[in-house]
Amino acid sequence: MSGPAPVAGLDARAWERELASGPLPWAARVADAAGFSGAASTRRVDDLTVVDWESGAFAGVRGPRQVAAGDGDHFVARIVRSGSEVFAQGGREWVLRAGDAVAWESRSPARFAAAGPVATRSVLIPRDVLEDVGCPLVIGRPRPGRVPAVRLLAGYLESLAPLLPDLAPGPAVAARNALLELGWGALQPESPLDPQALAPARRAAVERYLDARLGRSDLGVDEVAAAHGVSVRTLGRLFSAGGETFSGVLRAKRVARVREELLTGDSTVAALARRWGFFDTSHLNRRFRAVHGVSPHEYRARHRG
C-alpha distances in angstroms, 170 versus 126, 177, 203, 208, 216? Predict the structure, then answer.
């Protein structure tokens, strides 16, 4: 999973335009345009976004206009990869040096200034993601780069970033969950993140995988578990937590697709069986009757006259 192609070799004016059009816009100002050069990239990791900047000296401001223009409401984990900067939000100001990290939020004004060359990496986390797992990050608490958890987060991002364009959806979700846990551990160490809180995202990714492959009669639990980087047992727990089973959910999805087409289309029952992953018409009839109490033929006749 990825995003727009990285851009490099940007002069001062192009750099200012690039930052103004990003997922979280900034009003950038380059004091000395002569010889300035900047590079930026934006990559997606499922519902998280990784933004890299590398440039000469410049300053940035997020005022009310930029806050209103942003792409959603986010918490941001910002790491200084090289150089240093002064970052401020909520009436507080911090000097961040190479390796340091800080959390800030997108719905409040912020500013920063780098007096020399600087490279940063930011992870944009939708606010509802953290609220779903129990508690948002506490903003404005810089963490020094010498802290092992911060170094682990930075190292993981260094390894992950070049791989993102080639990650399939399943591994991308696993990478996203690992990134969320490492980010939380680095920036909120006194409140460990409950790994079970990540289960809804894993379940949603599995269901998207199933929805795209319902027509395959050979689709099985081993394949789905491997595609998402988990064991068969872990995959089973994603469904058993809600009183369901993997096979039961897969059957229900297939029967639901058949029901939709019985009501809206003219395909034969045999064609629907082939299209939605049933072995044959008898197999479809048994599964459909178990849910709706009648055969597909009878269901269509009753509901379409």
Answer: 20, 11, 11, 10, 18
Q: Which of 229, 154, 228 minimizes the C-alpha distance to 185?
A: 154
Q: Over the stretch 26-76, which tens digit does the pLDDT of each residue have? A: 999 998 999 899 999 999 888 899 999 999 999 999 999 999 987 788 999
Give phi and psi for 24, each to the nearest 5: -125, 95
Superfamily of domain 203-304 in CATH is: Homeodomain-like (1.10.10.60)
Cα 153–Cα 154–Cα 159 angle in degrees, nearest 5: 100
Q: Give the whole-angstrom CA distance, residue 73 versus residue 107.
A: 6
Cross-strand bridge partners of residue 93:
88
Tens of pLDDT, residue by residue over 229-254, are 778 998 898 899 889 999 999 999 99
Q: Are 77 and 152 in contact (CB under 8 A)?
A: no
- The CATH H-level superfamily of 7-190 is Jelly Rolls (2.60.120.10)
